User: Fold this.
Amino acid sequence: MAAPVDLELKKAFSELQLKMIDTQQKVKLADLQIDQLTRVQKHAKLTHTEISSLPDNTRLYEGVGRMFILQSREEVNNLLTDKQKTVDEKIKELEQKKVYLERSVKEAEDNIREMLLSRRAQ
Assistant:
């Protein structure tokens, strides 16, 4: 009768271990995405700072594919502001997802510990 219990524990342990590995990979992916979005955000801020330091009569162009389109300063500032807002929202979403995943990893670790303790108690 001890053998079926051991098999059940082994199966549950391997499932929890797989879930933990998968969740850790997702956390790493979220970290990478946050880092990339942070770089985009810095780039937009620096571009906005540089544009604001230019004289008013400076012609500004936006790159579209392999060509450039003449844009007004106001349009370029609006595009940069929208980009920053979008990136901020995405970063917040990813951080919430990351917190959820980290909590999930912690729960999986706790479940593994409980399983091992119950196994030793038997």
About this structure: The longest strand covers residues 60-64. The first helix runs from residue 2 to 53. The two ends are 12 Å apart (CA to CA).
